[in-house]
Amino acid sequence: MVDLAGSERIAKSKSEGRRFQEAVIINTSLSALGKVVLALAQDSRTARHIPYRDSKLTRILQNSLGGNSYTSLLTCLYPIEDNYEECLNSLAFADRCKNIRNRPTVNYVDQQQSAQERQVRELT
């Protein structure tokens, strides 16, 4: 479960000092996430680079976004006129996310191999 911070319109929020720095970091991470989602949502038949390493956020979410897991997205909106542009951006992001196709598989651990690896670690 991940709860992402909302994007900050720095001029609109009139952030200063530490809050300004936090807003810049949040926006940078969200921008990197948007690039990853855009790359994953494109036609998977073409070879492409997925920029997971552009931020810590995208590295953390790498297996959930393009891996072999089931992933759900919940987008929350505050539909008032002042937030019109932010709501549209959130809906566009959610629309791109729905085009990501993961292929979930069950990961099995070979018990015998795992036991052997444990024994080797104990001996070294």
Q: How would you portray this structure in words?
A:
- The protein has 124 residues and is mainly α.
- The protein has helices spanning 10-13, 17-41, 56-60, 62-66, 84-97, 111-123.
- The protein has a single domain, classed as Methane Monooxygenase Hydroxylase, Chain G, domain 1 (Up-down Bundle).
- Helices cover 53% and strands 0% of the residues.
**Would you tell me the overall average pLDDT?**
85
Fraction of residues in helix: 40-55%
What's the shape?
elongated
Q: How many H/I helical runs?
A: 6
Query: How many strands appear in the DSSP assignment?
Result: 0
Q: State the name of the first-level CATH class.
A: Mainly Alpha
Q: How many domains, in number, for the residues? A: 1
Radius of gyration: 20 Å
For the biggest sheet, the summary is:
none
CATH fold label: Methane Monooxygenase Hydroxylase, Chain G, domain 1
CATH architectural grouping:
Up-down Bundle
Elements, N to C (H/E): HHHHHH
Q: How far apart, in Å, are the first and last alpha carbons?
A: 38 Å
Pfam families: Kinesin
Main location: cytoplasm
Protein name: Kinesin motor domain-containing protein
Domain Kinesin motor: 1-100
